[in-house]
Amino acid sequence: MKKNSRSKAFTCVVAALVLGLSANTNQAQTAGQPAPDHPAVTVQGNTYTPRSILARNMGTPEDQTTQFPPHKIIGDIYYVGTRTLSSFLVVTPQGNILIDSTYERNVTTIEKSVQQLGFKFSDIKILLGNHAHGDHQEGDALVKQLTGAQVMAMAEDVPALQAIKPGGKEHPVDKMLHDGASVTLGGTTLVAHLTPGHTRGCTTWTMKTPEGGKTYNVVINCSLRPPAALTPALVAEFNRSFKLVRSLPCDVPLGDHPAQYRMEEKYAKLRNGSRNPFIDAAGCRLEADIEEAMFRAILAEQQKPAQP
Ligand SMILES: [Zn+2]
Predict the structure, then answer these.
(1) What pLDDT was estimated at residue 308?
(2) Distance between CA atoms of residues 172 and 191, nearest Å
(3) What is the Å distance from ligand 1's center to 135 Cα?
(4) Per-residue pLDDT reduced to its tens digit, 127-167
(5) What pLDDT digit, counting tens, does each position of 7-26 carry?
(6) Can you name the residues that pair with 96 across neighbouring β-strands?
(7) Tens of pLDDT, residues 81-127
(8) 26 CA distance to ligand 1 centroid (A)?
(9) Burial call 137-158: b when 16+ CB within 10 Å, e when fewer
(10) Ligand 1 center to residue 44 CA distance, Å?
């Protein structure tokens, strides 16, 4: 608890700094002009603004590139990302699946995490992504180069992915996926759900995983963070996506930034307790609640007549 409130306070203090820095380091989160920091919404007693959500997601530049202790989440799913950028490894008897390479400069860190868990980086056969922003998929070309993995991407995100070219490298796309597509390896199946809004091809991944004689529904949520300005097309996309994510069976919520599923808090419990803290059906809708409240508030502001 102490650590949490301390890190919360720290997050607030650095929020402004993070925004300034992330304008340079993360085209993903701040395309164009920095957004004004309103509206504010309160969900389950916590107040959020566009800037506080961004700071919560990204942390500091150091957080974005510092290894978080790799750990088993549940079943055959492992965390191999940094403190604030998620990367998940799904292990199967016929090779492994990596979801999100994050920044290219993080690929060696992800490789180290995979090895520390006792797996081989070269066993990654398929590389999937959350959405076509550099903080989640910039490293795809390097992962493919190092592992030979097949890169699969939601068709609607392909144009944005092709614009991500670290060091001039072409972004690899070996297979285009469409809404509802299944990706199967070694008896494990992930389903790709198109949940657009944050990007055109934002992909929510679902899978079932066994643990302790039960089967759990895992949902790796795509970002639902709305931009500062909403067009009618974006409004339609977000409306569809909020409805869809709320309909998915969910026991274990995960997300493209670990703060979306309170990873640090759960990880601390993992080390202390017996029950798997990542099983959190009650927390499955929290991120959608926060982002939908923000989306509705932005929309309401936009529809108000302009202030003189
Ligand atoms: Zn993004």
Answers:
(1) 59
(2) 21
(3) 7
(4) 999 999 999 999 999 999 999 999 999 999 999 999 999 99
(5) 443 333 333 344 434 433 34
(6) 91, 124
(7) 999 999 999 999 999 999 999 999 999 999 999 999 999 999 999 99
(8) 9
(9) bbbbbbbbeebebbbbbbbbbb
(10) 24
Structure tokens at 121: 């980086």
Spacing, Cα 117 to ligand 1 middle (Å): 27
Query: What distance in angstroms lies between residue 269's CA and the mean position of ligand 1's atoms?
Result: 28
Listed in sequence order, the residues at least 6 apart from 2 whose beta carbon sits closer than 8 Å to its beta carbon are: none
Give tens-digit pLDDT for 41-87. 999 999 999 999 999 999 999 999 999 999 999 999 999 999 999 99
**Alpha-carbon radius of gyration of the chain:** 18
Distance between Cα 276 and ligand 1 center (Å): 28
Output the CA 160–ligand 1 centroid distance in Å: 11
Gap from CA of 223 to ligand 1 centroid (Å):
6
Ligand 1 ion: Cβ-proximal residues, 5 Å cutoff: 28, 133, 223
Q: With beta carbons less than 8 A apart as the criterion, state whether 100 and 84 touch.
A: no
What pTM was estimated for this model as a whole? 0.87
Could you list the beta-strand ranges (E) of 203-283. 203-211, 214-221, 252-255
CA of 211 to the centre of ligand 1 (A): 31
Say what the pLDDT of residue 124 is. Answer: 98
Distance 118 CA to ligand 1 centre (A): 30
Q: Which pLDDT score, from 0 to 100, does residue 304 have?
A: 81
Distance 104 CA to ligand 1 centre (A): 15
Q: Tell how far the Cα of 27 is from the centroid of ligand 1, in angstroms.
A: 9
* Cα 181 to averaged position of ligand 1 atoms, centre (Å): 22
